Amino acid sequence: MRFYRLLALLVALGISHAYSQNNYDIIISNGRVVDGSGNPWYEADVAINGERIVRIGDLSSDTGSQVIDANGLIVAPGFIDPHTHALRGILDVPNAESALLQGVTTLT
Q: Which CATH number applies to 22-76: 1.20.1050.10, 2.30.40.10, 3.40.640.10, 3.40.50.620?
């Protein structure tokens, strides 16, 4: 009887571990997260499904269809540039590459 209880416990633990792993579209791992709150950066992983960030934290036991190693890099949301002189230049370079390289995703 004791054997069957132990076996049932091990099976239950195995099943719970299998269900505790999450699969995401993209995991950005080991990045220095700057979240825009004014707090100092912190090292974390970022999970993305579709076009949304769905989890931030230690995702080392989770899987992603694509994993991006951001070791030593900053991971931050896109920035809005409320005062820019780049609008005229967008006519010449419509993908606004210089703004994108700075993390700017919206020009006003």
A: 2.30.40.10
